[in-house]
Specification:
Layout lengths: L6 H10 L12 H26 L7 H9 L10 E8 L8 E4 L2 E10 L2 E9 L8 E2 L1 E2 L9 E8 L7 H13 L7 H9 L4 E8 L6 E8 L7 H11 L17 E6 L1 E13 L5 H22 L8 E2 L1 H8 L5 E9 L6 E2 L4 E9 L1
Parallel strand pairs: 9-10, 11-15
Antiparallel strand pairs: 1-4, 1-7, 2-3, 2-6, 3-4, 5-7, 8-9, 11-13, 12-14
Helix pairs in contact: 1-2, 7-8
């Protein structure tokens, strides 16, 4: 708004207000007196522009966006800690600590004999793919085998600024109250490990609600995560009594997305010197990236996900070593595949 209020513009405007009978040339007393004032005023205009931008959620930096959102009771989601399954030849004890790769874990809850929930001591999503042999940090008598076998609840990074901005705007267009759909979406998305949810009211008669979730890695949720959401929203022990976040009288069932295996076949013309083996990893990464993009839209889409041949072929042509592609089939058919309403695509075989 104040871009035109530069040092030169401010100084010129001030000099214009002085009679021409006085010396206003550069180096004169008047010029030298007004120049520092013009510099300060120009800086003030710059700061006024910053203040103006920080006043609106659309242009505010993270610090002031947080202040604006706080007026509606919102704050960015903090980073969370991944919970994984540790398998041992003996029962360890709560609080025992282990190392796997670059990360340390602590035993927090017993699942069954020899199986424990381990919570990563490093927050964020980076440890989510960390599986393998566990090494005890302190000696444990009788321990012979220890493995980190499965991520039960993915860790999440601190909410990105633009995601937080979008969530702030979403609260302006929808009103969450008393167990309506927006209320369930807001509450479930706040639970650690959840990446999105679809709400199905009255799915099995009056007072019933079904929540279908996807994890924060945009994949199928583990039973542990499903149980965690169920307990937080409407514990199975006393369903419908309001012991969780759900209103009294709502009987809530939590489920997760299903996975549909997608087998893809291409007829590829390769650039000189390339074969399928040379580009296979690139193709697999391309398919995984495309499927991840689809999965990220699942929770907000009113339609089922569609795996499109045009998307696969256009992305394939951008890969090194590939000249042309024809005859693409998905699960044996030369057409797009529409998945079930609560299904997400998972890469199967890819042939070229």
């Amino acid at each position: 708004m104040y871009e035109a209020q530069t040092f030169d513009a401010v100084l010129a405007r001030m000099l214009e207000k002085i009679p021409d009978t006085l010396d206003k040339r550069e180096g004169s007393i008047l010029y030298d007196a007004l120049a520092p004032v013009s510099a300060e005023l120009a800086q003030a205009y710059i700061e006024m522009d910053v203040i103006l931008n920080e006043s609106f959620a659309d242009t505010a930096s993270r610090e002031y966006l947080i202040k604006r959102a706080a007026e509606r009771g919102l704050k960015p989601s903090a980073a969370t800690y991944a919970v994984a399954k540790g398998t041992f030849n003996i029962d360890v004890s709560k609080g025992d600590r282990f190392n796997c790769g670059d990360y340390n874990y602590a035993a927090t809850e017993k699942i069954s004999t020899g199986n424990w929930k381990l919570t990563c001591e490093t927050s964020g999503s980076t440890p989510n793919g960390n599986l393998g042999v566990l090494i005890p940090i302190d000696y444990i008598d009788g321990l012979e085998t220890a493995k980190l076998t499965e991520v039960l609840i993915p860790g999440e990074d601190e909410e990105e600024t633009e995601d937080f901005r979008a969530r702030y705007y979403a609260t302006l267009s929808t009103k969450s109250f008393g167990g309506n759909k927006a209320d369930y979406v807001e509450k479930v998305n706040e639970i650690s490990g959840v990446g999105g949810v679809k709400v199905y009211p009255v799915w099995n008669g009056g007072g019933t609600v079904k929540l279908v979730i996807i994890n924060s890695e945009f994949g199928k949720a583990s039973n542990t995560l499903i149980d965690s959401v169920q307990t937080a929203i409407d514990p199975t022990v006393n369903q419908g009594t309001g012991d969780g976040l759900a209103p009294i009288g709502h009987i809530v069932t939590v489920d997760t997305v299903t996975e549909t295996i997608i087998n893809i076949s291409f007829s590829i013309t390769y650039q000189q010197g390339y074969t399928f083996d040379d580009v296979k990893s690139y193709i697999n990464n391309m398919v995984d990236t495309y499927f991840l993009e689809l999965c990220k839209t699942w929770a907000t889409s009113s339609d089922s996900l569609v795996v499109r041949i045009s998307q696969l072929e256009s992305r394939l042509l951008n890969l090194t070593g590939i000249l042309d592609v024809t005859g693409t089939t998905i699960n044996g058919t030369a057409s797009n595949i529409s998945l079930d309403s609560n299904a997400i695509p998972v890469r199967g075989t890819v042939n070229g």
